[in-house]
Specification:
With 186 residues, the chain is mainly α. The chain has 8 helices and no strands.
Length: 186
């Protein structure tokens, strides 16, 4: 009987490991399915899949991140901001939610909020090139606003006029880089 216990233990460990591998594969498929539905514009289906998944795993950061992308694509920026803000509070170590939050803020001309979010993203991940690009765009937009204010106060300021013209060429189109793709689960 003592020989059967070690074998049973090994079998149970192998069974548990196979369940974990199968579970990870299912989750990867769910993420891929939602991403594909999002890419093909099937937003209602993507939202339904996200909602179903989150009923089982409501704290999953990657699926919640995808939820924000679906909300944003569906023209629900306030909901996407709420979702991303919750992610930044619960998972402050993830830079992608900060980047996407900044993109939404910038699209609403809330450049100070966008700057703050992007500065946090690059503080968390100093190698995050997209966040740095977006931060540059936000800084340029803020600079343009400052030069415009300077011209309002002194309409004969030729340097401010030149700087505004230069920034307009840099900012056309004046949209930040694309939102981040969902981070891979670890």
């Amino acid at each position: 009987m003592s020989h059967s216990l070690p074998r049973l233990s090994v079998v149970l460990r192998l069974l548990a490991a196979s369940v974990l591998v199968a579970s990870a594969t299912v989750h990867a498929d769910d993420y891929g399915d939602v991403s594909q539905l999002l890419k093909t514009g099937k937003l209602a289906e993507a939202q339904a899949k996200v909602d179903l998944y989150l009923t089982v795993k409501p704290k999953d950061p990657q699926m919640r991140f995808l939820k924000s992308a679906v909300q944003s694509a569906a023209g629900q920026p306030a909901d996407a901001i709420t979702t991303l803000t919750a992610l930044t509070q619960e998972f402050p170590e993830l830079p992608e939610p900060y980047n996407n939050l900044a993109v939404l803020y910038a699209s609403q001309n809330q450049f100070d909020k966008a700057r703050t979010a992007l500065e946090m993203a690059v503080r968390i991940n100093p190698g995050y090139a997209t966040a740095y690009e977006n931060l540059g765009d936000v800084y340029a937009k803020l600079a343009s606003q400052s030069y415009s204010k300077s011209l309002q106060l002194n309409a004969t300021n030729p340097q401010a006029s030149q700087k505004i013209a230069l920034l307009k060429t840099v900012l056309t189109p004046a949209t930040p880089a694309a939102p981040a793709a969902p981070a891979k689960s670890k």
